Amino acid sequence: MSLISVGTMAFDAIETPFGKTDQIIGGSATYVAYAASNFVQPIKQVSIVGFDFPKEEMDELTKRGVELDGVEVVADKKSFFWSGRYHMDMNTRDTLVTDLNVLLDFDPVLPESYQGAEFLMLGNLDPVIQKKVITQLKTRPKLIVMDTMNFWMEIAMPQLEETLKLVDVLMVNDSEARQLSAQFSLVKAAKEIMKMGPKYLIIKKGEHGALLFHGDQVFFAPALPLEAVFDPTGAGDTFAGGFMGHIARTRDISFENMKTAIIVGSAMASFCVEKFGPERLKEITQADIDERIQQFVSLVNFDIELTH
Amino acid sequence: MSLISVGTMAFDAIETPFGKTDQIIGGSATYVAYAASNFVQPIKQVSIVGFDFPKEEMDELTKRGVELDGVEVVADKKSFFWSGRYHMDMNTRDTLVTDLNVLLDFDPVLPESYQGAEFLMLGNLDPVIQKKVITQLKTRPKLIVMDTMNFWMEIAMPQLEETLKLVDVLMVNDSEARQLSAQFSLVKAAKEIMKMGPKYLIIKKGEHGALLFHGDQVFFAPALPLEAVFDPTGAGDTFAGGFMGHIARTRDISFENMKTAIIVGSAMASFCVEKFGPERLKEITQADIDERIQQFVSLVNFDIELTH
């Protein structure tokens, strides 16, 4: 039940209406690892960092069953750095700084020990790099899940279309789904996107939950109503990590099991937003996760009998 | 299992990105009646119309078990008229015309035959009028549900607060909940509003579903993902009608049954938006409703086992 996770390991500096951090640990693959490692180990990490990425953070990941053979350390460059400021509604943010640093050199070579992995999570990256990872695998994984963003739709659409043909599940947010499909209705958008390659589409709507589409089937998972969203950074990646972790643990790629995986992902994301960065994800126990998942059951569970 | 429904019966003229109507039938009590009458009859209607309100519409309502003894007909005035234009996202609209007409004289006197009703639905109206209806009832209904809007928060907040003390369930949309409570978080907003009187709060979020709060409990019902929302006019009132209809049919005011009622309300609202005005609500059969409710079951139903 091995999982390869490809993405960034980085530093973030975050401002929200509730507070402000100095440089803290971030990056899509970091969040995926902290979420997924609750469900499946090892996680075969593929990323790139600079000389400044802390050894304690690497040790912490190793302790959680994250293999770092696929993480390149560049001795003379700094790690990727992103800084942003969230608005009051927490659904929109301004990017203040993007220092690509080592990311400019990212051209991952999969270690031989990563071959044969059954599950592949492609974090948001240049679609050319995402494709390179897929084509390096001698045996196609049982399930390939991919995240992307509007940036690649704007500057690398032909490359994105090539990569989309190779994946099973695409995860995007609602505005990205609209942009990718040129459809306003998310139902119509899903139909268009599923013609581009992915047989499954997950549309993340932040505080408004997530939708899973497959053929004519649709499933909806709410976000947990929270008193305060402290910092949404990484929530989407944490969702992906919980989703992939559950799928890899159960090795069941049916639509039914993907529904459960979305609930697991939503539960993990609900922890992520409670503190800055991945801080909260480092604290939680299996009991916390089980309790949170039960809250989702209560949140949507209802009895129905026919109504007349 | 009698239900009193108080609200407007009116004319609307609607523009959406998909089309435009001339004057068609509208009004909160009209939508409530078309939705609720699928589940419970009679519905004891309280409203006011002008000389121009069509006899065929009255006959149609009568046929569906709507009692009109409480509907005042003013011989020398026109019915309430509202005209609006929806934006592309269908969540926002501009009011083009509001002709209050007979609504200026609305001072309902409950017919003696309405006494003893077990359920009361107060559509969005001046809170003073809502209170007058409550105080005319010699026996307090088992459940009083009230809708309101931001307009009354702005011009009649003390009166609104008085009426809120007398009701069991308040239904508002998300921006109204924020305005009423001065809280941005809907969880915090719910706590504040439940201190003002209502023991239950339903927050309608349009295409993003609806939340039910009661004490520390919370339930979420999604909206059905639709290819096209043709006209959202009346969706909130139709939701209220489905909710009240289910409650009045089952005579069960438990939190558990309110969850089911919210699903019924959401199903009815999903029909409402498919055509202009109440047109679609007039067409649907019990079989259509059952099928739609099953779609909601599929939409949110998932299997969970503990995740490790």
TrEMBL record, chains A, B:
SUPFAM superfamilies: Ribokinase-like. Keywords: Kinase, Transferase. The keyword Glycoprotein does not apply. It comes from the Bacteria. Pfam families: PfkB. One of its GO terms (molecular function) is kinase activity. GO terms for cellular component: cytosol. This is Sugar kinase.
